[in-house]
Every structure is written in C-alpha cells, then in structure tokens.
Amino acid sequence: MGSLNQHSDINTFALELKNCSSRPSGGDLALMVNSEIGAVLAVMRRNVRWGVRYMADDDQLEHSLIQSFKELRRKIFSWQHQWHLINPVVYLQPFLDVIQSDETGAPITGVALSSVYKFLTLEIFDLDTVNVDDALHLIVDAVTSCRFEVTDPASEEVVLMKILQVLLACMKNKASLELSNQHVCNIVNTCFRVVHQASSKGELLQRIARHTMNELISCIFLHLPDIDNTEVSVRDADHTSGSKQQNNGNARSEHDDKTYSVGVSSNVSTDTSEGDGNIMEVGQGK
Fold it and tell me: What is the average pLDDT across 104-120?
C-alpha cells in the first residue's frame, strides 16, 4: 500500500509540473514584463547619474532609455488577449538598448541581462510567436556587442557571467532553430573570448566560463539531427567544385582564412573612456 501511495503521489506531482510548464496567460506575461521593467528602473534610480534624469518633471529631459521603458509599461497591459500576436522585439528592445549602451554601468547592464535571461528560460516566445527569428537575432547581436562602464572588477565579472547565461539560454530555447549559422558562430566565439579573458579573472568566473562552453558545444551537437544533411552536402559539393575550377591550388587556403576570421570576429576588450571608469565591450570586431 505504501508503494502504491508513493506512486500516486509521483503521478500527481508530474501532472502538476506539466500544468505549471504550460504557457502563462497574457495577464501573467504582462505582469512578468512589468516586473522586469521595474527592476531595471529601480537600479537606475539608485544611480546618481540616472536618478536625476528619472525624476525629471519634463519628459523631454528624461533619457531615451528611461522613456522607452515607461512607454513599454503603458503598452503591455493592453496586450493581455493578443500577446501571441505581439512582436517580441517590441518588449525586448528597451532591455537590449540598455545592454548595448556604454552610458550604463555594470549593475544596470547586469539587471537588463537578467531580464532577457528570464524571458528566454521562461519561454515567453517560441517557434509559434510572430517574428521570433528577428527577436533571437537581435538578442544575440545585442549581447555579443554588450558595452558597459566598469567601476570595479567584481561587477565586471558578474556581467560577464550573465552574458554567458544569456547566450547559452539562446541556444537552449526551443526557438533556437531559427538562429542563423553566423549567429551561432558569434555565440561560440563570444563565449570562447570570455573563457580566454577569464584566465586573468576570479576562479569562479573561470569555472563558469568553461562549464558554459562545454554546455554550449553539447547543445549545438544536439541540434545536428535538425540540420538538412542533404541540402548542406549538395551546397558544399557545389562550392568545392566551383572553387577548384577557379583556383585549383589556393581554394583551400582561402576557405581556411574565412573560417579562422570567424574565430577572431568576437572580442572582449577594455578601452579607456572619458567617464569615471573603463568601458568593457563584448562584441564583434570589424
């Protein structure tokens, strides 16, 4: 009898877990996004530079980043019954603008990254969402070109950890099938650069960076069955034969150069700015 009751409890728990994993309602999604907006604005208010701009009576005196969050807050609760028809870019863009802005410090950038990470892990959008491919591409572009003002080494490492989290979440999201090969390469290259930079940072960042890189490679290989092998092999065969006809001896070296150029396209660099600290940039080199 004890084993039967235990089995029944397990089935009940599994059923509840399945019900909890279903997509939240439109009202819940609006509350979720509103909560993340409040989290970012709260960190901005605590900052001396942004607190003055946030409390300005004249909307024209407010910074564009703050205005975009306030405008988004006014819109989200009107989407309750049509959330699946809303372009994710509309509610992601303010957070992505913060991530790419070099005027924001590490704490603000870190909170914005955490918000995007929640959107990805809670799967607010999936393959059935409108323009989900554009949303994922913009997330990858924003995170791989992340810029923030560094005030202390600890905050810098926290932001780098969150960058790794978001990039891995992009690959684990169900909609990751919409990512292009170039965006996947940018994700891998950026993570690799963070692993390289972490060698001069704390041990925690080093371990997390290596672990994330392992998880990322495993996730990519899990997607291999989704690739159309026939189409890829035919395209590669045509490209190879055409290259050999044009340049018999140098085709392989030219192809190798292009391959290795992807490896150095993403970089993590620290440049001196006119502000109080340094500007950390995680992005694609040109």
Answer: 94
